[in-house]
């Protein structure tokens, strides 16, 4: 669990930088295209799902606040 949490922290740090620099839109597309991750999500133990949701939540909040702009068709 510690390794997954560390990786999630690292990814969150990177996403924070992308949002701050206003270049997070490409990462949103990349994250949204993670079909394998979406399929595996229900099979992953709950404690690990939380780490994945942290990144998704961070992106959704940034989109809602207008920090990341994505086209409607995305």
From TrEMBL:
Sorted UniProt keywords: Ubl conjugation pathway
Pathway annotation from the record: Protein modification; protein ubiquitination
Annotated function: May act as a substrate-specific adapter of an E3 ubiquitin-protein ligase complex (CUL3-RBX1-BTB) which mediates the ubiquitination and subsequent proteasomal degradation of target proteins.
InterPro entries per the UniProt record, alphabetical: At3g05675-like, At3g05675-like_ankyrin
Name of protein: At3g05675-like ankyrin-like domain-containing protein
Residue span, At3g05675-like ankyrin-like domain: 3-70
Residue intervals passing through the bilayer: none
Taxonomic superkingdom: Eukaryota
One Gene Ontology term from the biological process aspect of the record: protein ubiquitination
